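To close the chapter, one final illustration. This time we ask the reader to focus less on the individual chains and more on the assembly as a whole: which components sit near each other, and how the overall shape emerges from the parts.
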Amino acid sequence: MFLSYQYRLYPFPAQESELRRWLSELTFLWNYSVEERAGGWRLRHERRTYLDQQARLKAWRAYDRAGLGSLPYDVARDQLQRVDLAFRAFFRPGAEGRRGRRRSGYPRFHRRTDSFTFVTIRDPLVRGPGIGAQAQLKVPTLGRVPLRLHRPPPASGTPKSVTVSARADGWYATVQYEIPDPTPPTVPARSPVGIDLGLSHLATLSDGTAVDPPTFLRRTLRRLRHAQRSLSRRQRGSGRWERQRQRVARYHAHVARQRRHFAHTLTHGWVVQHDRIAMEDLDVPRLATAGRLARPIHDAGWGMLRPMCAYKELRRSGRYVEVPSEGTTQSCSGCGRRHDPPLTLRDRTYDCPCGLRLDRDVNAARNILARALALDSPSELPRNPREVTRGERLPPPQRAGPRVYQQRRATSSNREHATRHESASAFSVP
Ligand SMILES: [Zn+2]
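The assembled structure is written out below.
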């Protein structure tokens, strides 16, 4: 399986300006390649493929020695692969892919590129004695960039690739490792748990535990909203507006970091205590875009909890299971009877003629657990069970040799549309 480890980078000023230059070269490469494909088709009905573009990369780099030629080859090639991924995502038939995933938009020009990837075979980290002491990241042609090694990389991991990204709050390196597949579980789960994700509580466990969103998140969200209001009052494009824009971006990064930290801590606790975790097979991407529910679901970071449980269980030879969500709230976890009339969102307790009286979310969590356990005895198999197995939520395996594309979601859709800000001659047809 593949694991990504993320570290903060602290480049020296000279390194930082060099990194920024790389990113602007890559922005130009992106925009040129997108226009070459789009314009080639628009003007002459010519199709340019990734291979066409890659084949000419060498000549381009030889010609532009001080520009694109000064970057490592695989960094430039990776950018072409990203362009290719963006086009593939757009042309992928809508019905394919996972449920609820919306079709990607047509690749656009980028105002800036904020990350690059290079392939690595040897350990890219230089470590001093102890954790965090004098660690560095080896970046080809650039040299060693100081890095905070807040945790050691996996002991048995083989490094595959490194992505360096510029964010509002600084520089990051994401190192992808391949680790040997853990042994699959052989004995039935000792301590299974069902988890109901909700809005009144972030999560409710079948053992009765309820998890609220953390207060620190609420606090930073309030500060973020305040900063956003202040931004909207400023003159767009002015110096004060720009400073405030950067402040808002830093708050956003802060909130995202807190959310991820909280989700990691929470799921870690679950995985340590339970060797099987069951959740509902909810269509989070679709729920999250569905009007009024969108904000709280996004705030709660639901989308993160499930994949985190999946890979953490997998690493510990435990299991993460998703069961059909149909009726988990509306049926009694004691006798299986349907609630009549159906429970509304306002009903907090589940009351059943059989005598069961339970918090509605705990009842749902118990139903989820029961369905997961039924997976072990095939006779009671519920309809359409969907078990998350290895590979489904993890990056595809990589072959040796040329890097196989990572299954990144096309990054183009959430970027701002940028008009041709590069010189017009850059797009002239050869
Ligand atoms: Zn009942």
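The CA atoms of residues 306 and 332 lie 25 Å apart. Residues 332, 334-335, 337, 352, 354, 356 surround zinc ion (CB under 6 Å). With these observations in hand, you are ready for the problems at the end of the chapter.
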